[in-house]
Amino acid sequence: MSVLNGKKILLGVSGGIAAYKTASLVRLFIKAGAHVQVIMTPASKDFVTPLTLSTLSKNPVHSSFFNQDDEDAVWNNHVDLALWADLMLIAPATSNTLSKMTTGNSDNLLVATYLSAKCPVYFAPAMDLDMYKHPSVLSSFTALKSFGNIMIPAESGELASGLSGEGRMAEPENIIAFLEADLESKLPLKGKKILITAGPTYEAIDPVRFIGNHSSGKMGFDLANEAANLGAQVILVAGPTHYKAKNGLVKVINVVSAQDMYDACHEYFNDVDVAIAAAAVADYRPKVVALQKIKKAADEFSIELEKTKDILASLGAIKKNQFLIGFALETENEIENAKLKIQKKNLDLIVLNSLQDEGAGFKKETNKVTFIDQDFKIEPMELKSKESVAVDILNKVVLHFAKS
């Protein structure tokens, strides 16, 4: 799966003959799983039609500060467009557009949006060979790179003038490859292996019935997706759940029982850098599992239970350099119980959530957690979506490796 999958890309198209290539560029972005919005300068519409790019991107194309054909003259908010994007690409970037970007001359929607962008900005120059080497253009390249923008160098080949040389905009496939390589090189967890557990476990009573809990697995799957998005190699050991990994790079190991999960975790733990135990593992299981369905006969029925193996404690007992994160779902004495779990299970960090907090717990889209580290530093967080909580947890992982 491409690192561009799920990325929100703002494509700026300026007025050069290479604008015809943007149709292929948009198609490749969509194929990679990206979301694309296009901003065109008025001059670029002489080379490629807004209808073409709108159809391919599946979004309206913007080219002016307001829609002149609209009776209400709706404003195209350049700030909103800039804040929407995960990255901005200006391709082709003509000498005229590069000069405006350098000087801040925002007389069109594209340059105004560029000046408002807080995301990484890439530009792919396109012009004739003498223009490409002109001191004023070289000065624009230098200035834009000093601003933190990233240049995708032009290629050599036949130019619109009939000459052959440097100045030709990089081919769409090469632009995609450049972006993927650059983004991958900057992923904070690239090269790290992370083991994550998710969901409940089901402990069989007979071939039909089981002991389980209300965990949906969403928190663990959100963690796995976010970790993969940050470049980590992710192994997700998942109990019974309807969730699927959104990031195709996540390796999912499906298990059912606590023993299954224990075995899978120990198979991979020695080779990982981080383990995050987000699963709600059953503490007890039936001591004897009936081979046939138990018939409803007696008025009362009892099941003898035995403890399951404590997966998190067993990992803490054998950990070497792994960064080990556990979860604690409590209903009383939350902080004290979480601190005890840190000590007993040799954890580096615990993510505490309480069923007393509204919006937290099983089968919810949100969670309210408190981080407690091995030094007992307590950091309460606000109620957030589970996706946002996953980001906060992975930020702790990134910070750990940044310090080490």
Q: Structural class of the helices, strands and pairings? A: alpha/beta
- What is the count of β-strands? 22
Find the CATH superfamily of the largest domain. Answer: CoaB-like
> What is the count of DSSP helices, taking H or I runs of 4+ residues?
13
Helical content band: 25-40%
Largest sheet: 8 strands, mixed
The CATH topology label of the largest domain is Rossmann fold
**Taking Cα atoms only, what radius of gyration do you get, to the nearest Å?**
27 Å
| Apparent shape | elongated
Question: How many domains would you count in the coordinates?
Answer: 2
How far apart the termini lie comes to 30 Å
Beta-strand share of residues: 15-25%
Order of neighbouring strands in the sheet with most strands: 13-12-9-14-17-18-20-21
The CATH class of the largest domain is Alpha Beta
| Low-confidence parts | none
* Average residue-wise pLDDT: 92
Protein name: Coenzyme A biosynthesis bifunctional protein CoaBC
Keywords: Coiled coil, Decarboxylase, Flavoprotein, FMN, Ligase, Lyase, Magnesium, Metal-binding, Multifunctional enzyme
Region (Phosphopantothenoylcysteine decarboxylase): 1-193
Region (Phosphopantothenate--cysteine ligase): 194-404
